[in-house]
Design goal:
This protein is of the alpha/beta class. It is built from 13 helices and 18 strands.
């Protein structure tokens, strides 16, 4: 007996739904880094068991994934099943509602991966379609669909961005030598992954110590053939110590640079930085440092849905201690410094008992050559 004969008809249908939703998820990824603050959305149109249309949300302000898939399908959309990773919108935004386009195309059935996370509109699109006589199936590969849009979900629910921590360390936990030298800890393959990560997220954040030590550009450097929307570069700099000759300020007119400082930072330096093309954001201080809680709230108000925190060790530790970090990617290179004066990966408050340690969840391991990347999250469950 073949496998298809062993599966009940209902199970066959469910498996087909999962199969086509996986295709939609693969399409959605193509919009990574280009759609924020909107979500990633992929869609396929299936007619008589054949895929006749494919589409994804390509860029912010552009047509949604369903629209592109329906356009690709053309007349064959009539009587078809449309698969989409996110519930079709039923409200007017930049484009008209996707539910209207689905009706006009003559789609017979819609299969949805995840519902809209906005509690004000959740279920509205699906219910509207059902009221118009279209069959709707919900929650197909929902976990995978939600995982793909963690930043969109968190920002929609909380108003603040999804925060990813990244650090590169020797095997004995040092991100730099006692002199501050850190180039390069990891190999080229690992650094390539980080550049892709930068391109996928809305902003990169570092402390002034990292700027003074490394003079980084903090840009996403990928193949010229890959479309990249450069992330906003954010520096936490309470007293506006950032040098005017730093690479960040010298390129501020080309790629945005936001500097978060305290209310007492020098006004003359603020004016010079603004004249150089940077944006200065004054925020309240907490323990003589810029309040990170106030900073992420301000970033959220500016439609920043995702932030990559790249260091240094005090900034990383502060995000963890204050419960502001969501996930992490920690790289370990096959190198040992044996130097207790080297800079540790993370600095925070001292703990006397192992039971006081901050737990990590959902651990995954990936190798880039001989480098090892450990990834996980700080919450027990993702959004």
């Amino acid at each position: 007996m073949s496998r298809s004969q062993r599966i009940a008809p209902m199970d066959q249908g469910a498996e087909q739904d999962r199969k086509h939703m996986r295709k939609a998820l693969q399409l959605a990824v193509k919009g990574s880094g280009l759609t924020s603050p909107n979500p990633l959305v992929g869609s396929v149109v299936v007619h008589r068991n054949a895929v006749v249309g494919r589409g994804f949300h390509e860029r912010v302000g552009g047509p949604h994934g369903e629209i592109n898939a329906l356009r690709d399908a053309g007349p064959e959309a009539a009587g078809s099943t449309l698969y989409v990773t996110l519930e079709p919108c039923n409200h007017f935004g930049r484009p008209p509602p996707c539910t209207q386009a689905i009706l006009e195309a003559g789609v017979s059935r819609v299969v949805i991966g995840m519902m809209d996370p906005n509690p004000k509109v959740e279920g509205g699109g699906a219910s509207f379609l059902e009221q118009q006589g279209i069959s709707v199936t919900r929650h197909v590969l929902e976990e995978e669909c939600r995982q793909q849009n963690q930043a969109f979900i968190k920002h929609t629910i909380t108003g603040i961005p999804h925060v990813t921590l990244k650090a590169a360390s020797t095997l004995d936990g040092r991100i730099a030598t006692r002199t501050g030298d850190s180039r390069w800890i990891t190999n080229e393959e690992s650094r390539g992954f980080v550049h892709k990560l930068r391109a996928d997220l809305d902003a990169i954040l570092v402390g002034i110590g990292t700027v003074l030590a490394d003079d980084p550009r903090l840009t996403a450097r990928l193949s010229p053939a890959v479309p990249v929307r450069q992330p906003v570069r954010v520096v936490v700099d309470s007293l506006l110590k950032i040098p005017f000759q730093s690479q960040l300020i010298q390129t501020a007119r080309d790629v945005p640079v936001w500097i978060a400082c305290g209310e007492e930072a020098p006004g003359d330096r603020e004016k010079q930085l603004i004249d150089s093309g940077a944006r200065v954001v004054r925020l309240p201080l907490q323990n003589s440092r810029v309040s990170l809680k106030a900073l992420v709230e301000e970033l959220g108000k500016q439609s920043v849905t995702s932030v990559l925190v790249e260091g240094g060790s005090q900034i990383l530790g502060a995000f963890i201690e204050e419960g502001l970090a969501d996930v992490f990617h920690f790289f370990f290179a096959p190198k040992i410094l044996c130097d207790h004066e080297g800079i540790p990966m993370i600095r925070g408050k001292s703990r006397e008992k192992m039971a006081e340690a901050i737990p990590a969840h959902g651990m995954q391991v990936h190798c880039f050559g001989e480098d090892v990347m450990l990834s996980g999250r700080f919450q027990e469950k993702p959004y």
